[in-house]
From TrEMBL:
<keyword id="KW-0812">Transmembrane</keyword>
<dbReference type="InterPro" id="IPR006597">
    <property type="entry name" value="Sel1-like"/>
</dbReference>
<protein>
    <submittedName>
        <fullName>Sel1 repeat-containing protein</fullName>
    </submittedName>
</protein>
<keyword id="KW-1133">Transmembrane helix</keyword>
<dbReference type="Pfam" id="PF08238">
    <property type="entry name" value="Sel1"/>
</dbReference>
<dbReference type="InterPro" id="IPR011990">
    <property type="entry name" value="TPR-like_helical_dom_sf"/>
</dbReference>
<feature type="transmembrane region" description="Helical">
    <location>
        <begin position="12"/>
        <end position="30"/>
    </location>
</feature>
<keyword id="KW-0472">Membrane</keyword>
<dbReference type="InterPro" id="IPR050767">
    <property type="entry name" value="Sel1_AlgK"/>
</dbReference>
Length: 261
């Protein structure tokens, strides 16, 4: 009652109280929506929202909600929580993140194994490179047709990171990833056909793959096309005009680099 009398004398106080009430109600409504949503029907954008809030925003409530969902055995929530913890950049969080990703992977989440394999292959703050573990995780995800896992498995096999190099197997996995129009995989497969690395040399196939990757604005592929026009390679005639055009497109693409798988 005293608040209402004060509000009549000070209208701005009433406005401030209303804003606080709305914000509180909005926060409670958001929590209720997420807590009451049936786990099988969790939408990807809900987890993405929670991930952004828990990761970039360092929102403890969002992290707690991810933890609650992960504890209930939801694989995509387990994967999301693992990715958030892995991104924290310290060994304690990274170790816990790895455990959640492993748990999600064992439940059949290929994205979790792919994320784990990539992290072990490339290393990250708080997580040391572990090539054997990376190979196991990437292989598990790649066998399901996972694009990113197939690409990174190809990279590991081509370069022999912690395992014997195998150009033929690398080309196979680049092809698996290329089926989903992954620009980096198209480029690597083009290189394989151009140089006969794990597959028979085929300039026509190499050129077609470079072109497809370049059409997806992948800078290395555009540069390869430019050099082919400059020097008359892979069956192309020297063409200064196309060379300059490809260089201009490469410069543009470099300003907006494609996201790696």
């Amino acid at each position: 009652m005293a608040i209402l009398h004060a509000a009549k004398r000070h209208p701005r106080l009433l406005i401030s109280l209303s804003v606080v009430a709305l914000a509180t109600a909005g926060g409670l409504f958001w929590q209720a929506q997420h807590r009451n949503a049936p786990d099988p029907a969790l939408r990807a954008n809900t987890l993405t929202e929670l991930r952004v809030m828990a990761d970039s925003g360092r929102d403890d409530d969002a992290l707690a909600e991810l933890q609650r969902l992960a504890d209930k055995g939801t694989p995509d929530a387990q994967r999301t929580l693992g990715q958030v913890l892995l991104a924290r950049g310290d060994s304690e969080h990274a170790l816990t993140g790895v455990r959640w990703l492993q748990q999600a992977g064992q439940a059949g989440d290929a994205d979790a194994y792919a994320a784990l394999g990539k992290a072990w292959l490339l290393g990250s703050p708080g997580l040391a490179i572990n090539y054997p573990q990376a190979h196991t995780a990437l292989q598990a995800a790649a066998k399901t047709g996972h694009t990113g896992a197939a690409y990174y498995l190809g990279i590991q096999l081509k370069n022999g990171y912690g395992i014997p190099a195998d150009a033929k197997a690398a080309a196979h996995w680049f092809e698996v990833a290329a089926r989903n129009d992954e620009p980096a995989a198209l480029f690597m497969l083009a290189n394989a056909y151009r140089y006969g690395d794990g597959v028979a040399n085929d300039d026509a196939k190499a050129l077609a793959l470079y072109r497809k990757s370049a059409d997806l604005e992948y800078p290395p592929a555009i540069q390869a096309m430019a050099m082919a026009y400059q020097h008359g390679e892979m069956g192309l005639k020297r063409d200064p005009a196309n060379y300059k055009q490809e260089l201009a497109e490469a410069a543009h693409a470099l300003k907006h680099p494609a996201q790696q798988p």
